[in-house]
Specification:
671 residues, seven-stranded mixed β-sheet, 31% helix, globular, binds beta-D-galactopyranose
Length: 671
Amino acid sequence: MLGGRMLHGGDYNPDQWLEYPKVFEEDVRLMKEAGVNCVSLGIFAWASLEPEEGRYEFDWLDHIITRLGEEDIQVILATPSGAMPHWLTQKYPEVMQVQADGRRNLPGKRHNFCYTSPVMRQKIQALDRALAQRFGRRDNVILWHISNELGGNFGDSTCHCELCQEAFREWLKKKYGTLENLNRAWWNHFWSHTYTDWSQIHSPGPYGEITSTALILDWRRFSTDQISDFCEMEIRTVKEASDLPATANFMDFFKGLDYNRLKKGLDIISWDSYPFWHEQKDEVPAAVRTAANHSVMRALKKAPFLLMESTPSGISWRQANPLKRPGMHMLASMQAVAHGSDSVLYFQWRKGRGGYEKFHGAVLDHKNGSNTRTFRDVTEVGRRLAALGDRLDQTVNRPKAAIIFDWENWWAVEDTQGPRLDFDYVEWILSHYRAFWEAGIEADLVNMDADLSGYKLVAAPLNYLYKDGYADRVRAFVADGGIYVTTCFSGEVNETDLCYIGQHPLEDVLGIVPEEIDAPSDDFANSFTYDGKTYRAFDLCGIVHAKADTEVLSVYEKDFYAGCPAVTRNSFGKGEAYYLAAESDLEFLRAFYGDVFQRAGLENPLCAELPYGVTVTERTGMDGRKFVFVMNFRNEPVCVEGIGSRTDAESGAVYENRLELRAFQCVLLEG
Ligand code: GAL
């Protein structure tokens, strides 16, 4: 736990308020009132820190850090590469990204610098070095915040300038050694795409190469490496003069960047969470997506993470931006903690007077100071976290189940032309994760490189691409007693999108032989009966044959593949593997996983049936301490029955057999 306590506070941008000296003193006073103990400084402050090339102005920041220190407020200090000052883009246009269609960006916006540009790297390095020398050993500075949402830029994280093209070719040379190897790996005889010189290789673009899926995959890998390399360069630089750990704030299911690669240079994972609460009356889909994101972040290092940003009220970047209803701010904050966050931090402390984000929710509004509902909500969270103190220190969720969520698979399956063109990998992951969430079974979302040995159950929905060695790891996991679940359109291709020939790489483990895949329209939707109930099979229906010893748990009921297996189970070594041949709905997944959890011996920490909208997670310490978070995402009271005798970890109250939860309430129990 950083700084020995749960962090509460968030992005603070006093560089926008330097002409309003009274504002800073008011901020400090109100931070104390709201229980803020940590702020992130300097995230977009390059122009204030270096108003002209090579002239640094740090006194204002020094004053702020010192003053915050006097008030026992800790600082997460950012490197300001997230937004470039105009003097930089004007003098060195190469720092601005080139888009896929070859146009160079104009100045402005943020998150849009070229990660390869030597000028960009030199300029930010010089500034980072100076910042670290001045502030890197201050008592109240606790963490480096590298850049901001690396790769963000409204969805396109890559730069296609000549410097990047050249770096891409070099990256490919290192990976493949010879052009022959590359042509073979990418299947380049197709449409005469064979390269005869490295200089012929170009990044994918709208009126260039968009059909070579292997090229696109490698381009995405390269871009991830380039951004990670940039981030690692910044980390090395600040660590020359400081021993502080470093983080970089990640985003909600961000496709542009494989966080499993980026994580390697980071000491702590953090992320920015902006769920779409109150988009519909049923908050469960938003709660499930948020929980899944938390699980991705925690699983990256199997350690507590930081909630680096969240909004204390509404956001400002969707068509309609509802305010958080009473209770939701506390619940969403506790949800993060429940899944392993050691902080509740906001974007941002005070709304700017102008600029693009002036109406985005913040702790302080333009008017009314602390006399707002938002301020009171924030203060309540501050109090609760302060009362928890360090009780959650060294505790983390230790799930016995995992779901494979892999960026490379995400890229590959959504780019491929196959039975469907509309795969939404994240939706597949979420539909399986939801069955876990509803049952209160916490799962790590890990990629294919993960060590599976600590899990009892691993599910791998729509696992189209297999990384080298993955099939062997799964085989060993099942042989050793693990339960593995996978679906149709899995194990189709290798790392360069070449189809496996001969047989499915896990044919022995799964006990099935896949033959065809149907993508029926609604008119041709199929059905199957599982455990006495009939479910729809739609969108994707694999036609497979069961091997002799494989149990067929359900078969298709219609069309030319009536009688073919829809759900199978195969014993392999000490474990077993399930194959779900058809895409079905949540109702089926609930029933199916209900059975699988039982076979895996997995129960939720309350060992109780959970009403709709309620979930539980548990943080445990190596010393045996256990905390169970019970969360009600319904806007009405609910009761959880059959919980035995439980003690409230905060109030000390004892609940005998039943726990009543108010609307949007989170109760923390001793384990
Ligand atoms: C984040 C970003 C912040 C702010 C916030 C508003 O993605 O890091 O700087 O823009 O969104 O929601």
